[in-house]
Amino acid sequence: MTQVSIIGPGAMGSAIADLVRRSGNSVELLGRDDTGKPVTGDIVVLAVPYGGVAGVIAQREGQFDGKVVVDITNPVDFSTMDSLTVAADGSATAEIAEALPRSQVVKAFNTNFAATLSQGSVGEQPTTVLIAGDDAGAKAALAQIVTDAGLRAVDTGSLSRARELEALGFLQIGLAAGEKIAWTGGFAVVA
Amino acid sequence: MTQVSIIGPGAMGSAIADLVRRSGNSVELLGRDDTGKPVTGDIVVLAVPYGGVAGVIAQREGQFDGKVVVDITNPVDFSTMDSLTVAADGSATAEIAEALPRSQVVKAFNTNFAATLSQGSVGEQPTTVLIAGDDAGAKAALAQIVTDAGLRAVDTGSLSRARELEALGFLQIGLAAGEKIAWTGGFAVVA
């Protein structure tokens, strides 16, 4: 039994919480009123918008040490919808890993719309959670939860692949915002 | 009837040539022995590896003026499989557009494995050709050929979206090279 803490009870945080419950593991979902509660999970999902991550890290200083920290953000410049707000050769995940040197930081879920996590499929394909990170154990622990919940998980490689996952997330959000795809669809991974 | 010239008779060039034939348009496929033949198409597909593009442009100076030029490349550093070889905030397409200021340059096909162009599907979904470029007419002309061939085409936006399409292409090639997906599969677009 793995305890997963999810910070941010929005659409994505709630969908990931349901996924963890379906996997048979336990979950705590922490909102704005829970800033006084320390995180208890071995895996912590930062399910807040990119702009809120630095604040959460500052507020909960030290609480993420030794834990797997999952970054799900898409650092899209929503004012222009024409670029990401992170360094062109970097990623939000790289920034978070630098801010949390005593955590195992992984990227995941940023290429999955919330609805596809809940419905378990994208079109006829099982929803696939793409994961990137430098710690194999951290990635395997997260992948186990995903697969136990009936979804698919694919390890895309090192933390540097977060750059491409964020590009994919950005592209997918742009297509949905432009009504080229539905928020219930997007990129399915055909093995 | 649109005439499409394809430079590079490899797996991708041949698959795109078949697609053009299926669309009811005409195609010429130019190989290494055809460097003396000028391109005759209104649309020219550069179906050579990224490293070969500059040579083709130099060799055929002026022949692309006024034409739609389609860049299908994935400028992956194949020695490391860990990055692209273009500027982090740029793309191969941006480089080609700079080299061909009198052409309408679009990105397309780089997120489609050759087999998925031939089979017309990725899993249960019709194969979707993602297109990016600054000239709406050029994108529409290419999209018409793709849809007339029975595939789907999605306009992903301006030429700057080529950066994300190249990130997606890189990710997909890495997953196939790592045997996480098959070369007959990859990312399907669920509308």
Write a structural description.
Two copies of one chain form a homodimer. With about 190 residues, chain A is of the alpha/beta class. Chain A has one domain: Rossmann fold (3-Layer(aba) Sandwich). A seven-stranded mixed sheet of chain A has the order 2-1-3-4-5-8-9, sandwiched between helices. In chain A, helix 5 links the parallel strand 8 and strand 9. At the A-B interface, helix 6 and strand 10 of A face helix 6 and strand 10 of B.
Largest sheet of chain A: 7 strands, mixed
The number of domains of chain A? 1
Strand content of chain A: 15-25%
- Name the structural class of chain A: alpha/beta
As a whole number of angstroms, the C-alpha radius of gyration of chain A is 15 Å
Number of helices of chain A: 6
What is the CATH H-level superfamily of chain A? Answer: NAD(P)-binding Rossmann-like Domain
Task: Please give the most extensive interface between any two protein chains, plus how many residues each contributes.
Answer: A-B, 36 and 36 residues
Feature tags:
seven-stranded mixed sheet; two-stranded antiparallel sheet; Rossmann fold; homodimer; 6 helices; alpha/beta; 191 residues
Summarize, please.
Chains A, B: This is NAD(P)-binding domain-containing protein. Two copies of one chain form a homodimer. By secondary structure, chain A is an alpha/beta fold.
